[in-house]
Write the structure tokens for this entry.
Amino acid sequence: MSTSTSHPTFPSRPYSGALGKLPDRSNAAGGSNPFGASSSARETARLERERIERERAERERAEREGQNRLAELTEEQREEINEAVSFVFSVCFVEWWCRVAGLIQKGN
């Protein structure tokens, strides 16, 4: 049942003349470096990497300082902080529960 049909050939294209040449770009950029955009992109990427590295180093330094500050707290100061956090959490929880139960209307 298979039939053999010949496929039509594509017309030939003229590859001679101006089509075979690359355009002259020797003075397209006004005599500037043809790689200027590329080096500018590399410079931008380098600056971005340096900025990210500085920010990371700053975060790490701040973390170390924060850990040092926590280590310097006395036991009494730690207890006071824990009590304050527990109190705030309790107040927020009670307020949430009252809203859920309908005892407090939204906006009050």
Q: What stands out?
A: DSSP finds two helices and no strands in the chain.
